[in-house]
Specification:
Layout: H1 2-18, H2 23-37, H3 43-55, H4 60-97, H5 107-132, H6 136-151, H7 157-172, H8 190-212, H9 217-231, H10 236-247, H11 255-265, H12 275-281, H13 289-319, H14 322-348, H15 355-369, H16 375-389
Length: 390
């Protein structure tokens, strides 16, 4: 178990250092690492995990990582995966909060990293589309999901798209062939899973009441960040403005400090939810600094842990019903559509401005897909080339 825990932590720590580009790119990096290179899960299981985590509130890529860590080394493995993936970005942002600006990357490096994210996401989306949309019905569901996601800017659109994809699967995919599927090892009993889900619901209900009647700043911070992590659909790009509306008017952080950290968070690897560590570090009241960073970081990620670890023990049984299996076929196709939409905006639109950018991304795609160069190597090369070219 100890060797498995160490392996989980090291692998996710490396990904936390190199996974630039936001949650969609993270899912691409995870696909390359855990489906293709390490074979921890198969294609269908990974697609199911992505679909499930897209449906849940919180950072989808971090939840996928927790589920993979859970399957490898139990609940401690889920924590090790989260800690490894989150620690680099959290440390960078806390150091930035202390004024260590020399750790910021220049614009050229950042642009190179954004471009390689285009190639990584394209690789993952293509691989998943080939496997999960092999016929015209599922391809149609994927394209319609893409269209809906790009037309609407609502943060809840992905919930709607996944629900409609599931309904489409039940109605139109009864005769479709399901991909071979290896059940994920939840390593958690249903009793423990139910207790974790109950703890999530209880905390969400009572924390606002207790915090409102309390004078403890730490409790108010924990409540604000726990609710943000519980109610956000759409990942880090959505949680940042929600935290701004929650914290700035209440005086928990100034507008100037918030915007400075907001800008810094756009240029770091790993989950954008790590921005919570920065906000805790710059809090004007105690706890602040390192303790404030830890409190806020734990609070914003705790809902994701409780939800994904609590739900997984029931997941395989749900998949055993034929209607649920058909729904998952449709949901997986819809998730491919969501990833295609995210590939266009923000991954493509934030990186590809000219022919030089497209050429750079094409070379990265060639190295990843045909030359089979490890993604972390291509990431570092792209950062160096970006610094040179831009």
């Amino acid at each position: 178990m100890r060797s498995s825990l160490f392996e989980v932590f090291i692998v996710f720590f490396r990904l936390g250092l190199t996974s630039f580009g936001g949650p969609t790119a993270h899912i691409g990096f995870f696909h390359d690492e855990f489906v293709k290179r390490r074979a921890w899960v198969d294609e269908a299981t990974y697609a199911d995990l992505v679909a499930l985590c897209q449906f849940l509130p919180g950072p989808a890529s971090s939840q996928v990582g927790m589920a993979l860590g859970l399957s490898r080394a139990g609940q401690l493995g889920a924590i090790a995966a989260w800690l490894g993936f989150t620690l680099p970005s959290a440390l960078i942002l806390v150091l930035f909060a202390f004024g260590v600006n020399k750790f910021q990357l220049g614009n050229g490096w950042l642009h190179g990293l954004k471009i390689v994210a285009v190639a990584v996401v394209a690789q993952a989306v293509w691989a998943m589309a080939v496997k999960l949309c092999p016929d015209k019905k599922r391809a149609t569901i994927a394209v319609m999901a893409t269209v809906c996601s790009l037309i609407s800017s609502s943060a809840l659109i992905q919930i709607f798209v996944i629900l409609v994809g599931g309904i489409g699967g039940i109605l139109f995919l009864r005769k479709s062939q399901e991909l071979p599927h290896t059940p994920i090892k939840a390593r958690v009993t249903r009793l423990n899973g139910g207790m974790l889900l109950g703890a999530f619901a209880l905390l969400l209900a009572i924390l606002p009441v207790v915090a409102k009647s309390s004078n403890y700043h730490a409790l108010k911070l924990f409540d604000s960040f726990f609710r943000a992590g519980s109610l956000v659909f759409g990942g880090g790009h959505v949680v940042l403005p929600l935290l701004q509306a929650e914290l700035v008017p209440a005086g928990l952080v100034s507008q100037e400090l918030f915007m400075a950290g907001y800008g810094a968070s756009q240029g770091i690897p790993g989950p954008l939810f790590s921005f919570a560590a920065y906000l805790g570090a710059v809090s004007p009241e105690s706890p602040s600094g390192w303790l404030g960073a830890i409190v806020c970081l734990l609070a914003v990620f705790l809902p994701s842990y409780l939800l994904i670890v609590g739900i997984l023990p029931f997941w395989e049984r749900l998949r055993g019903y034929s209607g649920a299996r058909n729904a998952m076929l449709g949901i997986n196709a819809a998730v491919v559509g969501l990833l295609i939409a995210a590939f266009y905006n923000p991954v493509w639109t934030s990186a590809i401005y000219a022919g030089k950018d497209f050429s750079f991304a094409s070379v990265c795609f060639l190295l990843l897909v045909f030359w089979k160069i490890p993604s972390w190597v291509v990431v570092f090369l792209s950062a160096l080339i970006g610094w040179t070219l831009y």
